[in-house]
Amino acid sequence: MATVLTDQKWTTKYPELGTAPVPIEPCISPDYFERERQRIFRRVWLNIGREEEIPEIGDYFVKDLEVCQSSILVARGKDGVIRAFHNMCSHRGNKVVRGCRGRTKGFVCGFHGWVYDSTGALVHVPDQEQFFDFNPREHGLTAVATEVWEGFIFVNLDPEPAQTLREFLDELPERLSGYPFGELAPRDAYRAEVKVNWKVALDAFQEAWHARFVHKRSGGEAYASKDNPFIHALEFGLYGPHRMMSVPGNPEFRPTPVQLVAHQFGKSYIKREVVMDQVPVGINPTRNPIWAFDSYYLFPNFSIFVFDGMFFTYHFWPLGVDRTVWETKTYYPTAINAGQRFSQEYAKCALRDTWLEDLSTLENIQATLASGGKANFILQDQEILVRHSHKVVADYVTT
Q1: What tens digit of pLDDT does each residue of 169-205 get?
Q2: Nearest Cα residue to 104 out of 61, 48, 53
Q3: Which one of 10, 177, 297, 328 has the minimum C-beta count within 10 Å?
Q4: DSSP conformation letters of 296-315
């Protein structure tokens, strides 16, 4: 199979990003982080889960968003609609739901017994006659703007969001329409708290050429080839505050015997069997026969890595200027036999090893940034998504 690459210079295609060094200060400044908290995370749409997590009426989950200083309760109401609320009682501010997830007909505050139904309405107040000019209809749970796209649940903590979710996502709905997100089941999840700025953590996954070095003992050889040793991307795309990267594989890669067995029975992050006329326009946009995967980065902190028949997601949740919670979830077709289950178990272990390699660099980077030894990041053409990411953050923070 012939290798098909491009000599495209991406900074020429997107000249508005420039080529100057990118300052380090925003990754170590507490003041800058506080502005990110207020001007980004409390104002834009944030993905906090998928609708499969609450498939039935009365199902709910709680997502604590420390960066927004908020706890969010997400529930499927008795009418089947997914809603989100501040997890805060209207009486004295107690956290109403303390468990992570479950199913219920209503939510009872453990402080004074106020009861809310699954649509957030206040339906019972003990000793109600002792209140003054009290109308229960005015004191339900405080709603948070909630919208769903391709099964992904988004919230916006701004009481009056400047954009609908569709407007915020720019071209992404059209580019990814038709990918079977809803047909793939959650398989594995990992979570780690890392001593690193959230932007530094995100940057580690926004270029491919590190794989030749960081992943040389794991999956790197599946992507780095003789003709493309530094894994130059097939395509980069910028869509408002969002971005994507299309990554080639190594056409000469030869799986090990164990990998061959795993590939025989299921999907994998290094297996490719792509039918070019059956994927959305945003998947393998160059229709390249050596395509491996596409990664979409939804501003500010959510990423979707799309392969042929499986996908996984990342979230980078800031806890402070130098602390981040990294979360990942994988999604596969439901295994219906032992072979498919083995394939997914193999992929889980392979991805876990790759992620451990990625995470191993982050705290070292943050420690050196804080030293003040350098003032800037020096970026090359294949790191254009890193450059775009920092520019978008700066635009939000400084305007």
Answers
A1: 999 999 999 999 999 999 999 999 999 999 999 999 9
A2: 61
A3: 177
A4: EEETTTEEEEE-SS-EEEEE
Query: What's the burial of 333, exposed, middle or buried (CB within 10 Å: 0-12/13-18/19+)?
Result: middle
SS3 state of residue 90: coil
3-state secondary structure of 153: strand
In angstroms, the CA 380 to CA 396 distance is 24
Provide the domain limits for residue 144. Answer: 46-168
For 399, counting Cβ atoms within 10 Å of its Cβ (0-12 exposed, 13-18 middle, 19+ buried), the class is exposed
Distance, CA of 144 to CA of 150 (rounded, Å): 19
Q: Distance between CA atoms of 221 and 209, rounded to whole angstroms?
A: 12
Residues 76 and 157 in one domain: yes
pTM, two decimals, is 0.93
Q: What is the CATH number of the domain that holds 378?
A: 3.90.380.10
Distance CA(129)–CA(190), nearest Å, equals 49
- Whole-number Å distance between alpha carbons of 288 and 269: 17
Q: Contact at 8 Å (CB) between 247 and 231?
A: yes
**Length of the chain measured in residues:** 399
Q: Are 61 and 177 within one domain?
A: no
Q: Does position 342 have pLDDT exceeding 80, yes or no?
A: yes
Q: Is the dihedral of CA 314, 250, 288, 245 positive or negative?
A: positive
Place of tokens 């969002």: 242
User: 106 vs 71, 73, 76, 100, 119, CA distance in Å?
Assistant: 18, 12, 11, 15, 9
CB 350 within 8 A of CB 312: no
The pair of three-digit structure tokens given for residue 332, joined into one six-digit string: 């596969």
Residue 270 lies in a domain: yes
